[in-house]
Amino acid sequence: MKKVFLAAIALIGFTLTSNAQAIADNALGLRLGDSDGFGAEISYQRALADNNRLEFDLGWRDGNDYDGFKLAGLYQWVFPLDDMFNWYVGAGGGLGSFDYDNGTVSDSETFFFAAGDIGIEYNFDIPLLISLDFRPEIGFGDFNDDLDFDIALGIRYQF
Fold first, then answer.
1. pLDDT, tens digit, 9 for 90 and up, residues 57-85
2. How many helices and strands (H and E) does the chain possess?
3. Alpha carbons 111 and 94: distance in angstroms, whole number
4. Mean per-residue pLDDT for 120-136?
5. What pLDDT, on a 0 to 100 scale, did the predictor assign at position 11?
6. What 3-state class would DSSP assign to 93?
7. Cα 30 to Cα 10, 21, 25, 57, 65, distances in angstroms
8. What is the spatial distance between Cα 129 and Cα 28, in angstroms, rounded to a whole number?
9. pLDDT at position 107, please?
10. Largest Cα span, the chain
11. pLDDT average, residue stretch 6-33
12. Rounded Cα gap, residues 40 and 31, in angstroms
């Protein structure tokens, strides 16, 4: 009876271990989306635990009459869906700066924003992560003073 009990405990432990999917310690890549001209971002994720991580994104734009940058930081909770799929939700914020000068009109501003995040990701057998997320952002400034919705595709190398 003792052997059956120990075997059952071991089987339950192996089952729980194989179903729990740990996220990568680090992931670095690109997040490609659109929100007020800040479409491409360099993205870094750092795991804090098996299902929690931090994400930092740096986006910038440079055009004929304008340039700007945007830095976002988010805390995310990651939940397994099926085998290699996860879904995640998070919250955070950031800051940005925007300079506009077309020769007749000149404007510059630094702004802050609060952001939420919800998405789905797929972990390949190779160290590649692909994600699709939705990020509503509320801006606090003259240039960015409203609610923006950012939908983006992320491609990251995991290490």
1. 999 877 778 788 899 999 999 999 988 99
2. 1, 8
3. 9
4. 96
5. 46
6. strand
7. 41, 23, 17, 9, 25
8. 9
9. 85
10. 87
11. 66
12. 6
The DSSP element (H or E) to which 94 belongs, if any, is strand 85-101
Return the half-sphere exposure (C-beta side, CA atoms, 13 A cut-off) of residue 138. Answer: 4
Measured distance CA(22)–CA(47) in Å, rounded: 9
CB of 74 closer than 8 Å to CB of 64: no
Question: Number of C-alpha atoms within 13 angstroms, CB side, residue 49?
Answer: 7
- Tell me the two tokens of residue 17: 């271990």
CA distance 119 to 121: 7
Contact at 8 Å (CB) between 107 and 66?
Answer: no
Closest by Cα among 65, 146, 149, 148 to 107: 65
Contact assessment for residue 85 and residue 120, using Cβ atoms and an 8 Å cutoff:
yes
Tell me, what DSSP letter sits at residue 23?
P
3-state secondary structure of 16: helix
CA–CA dist 42, 74 (Å, integer): 14
Measuring CA to CA, which residue among 52, 58, 59, 57 is closest to residue 75? Answer: 52
pLDDT reading at 56 higher than 90: yes
In which residue are the tokens 């089952």 written? 15
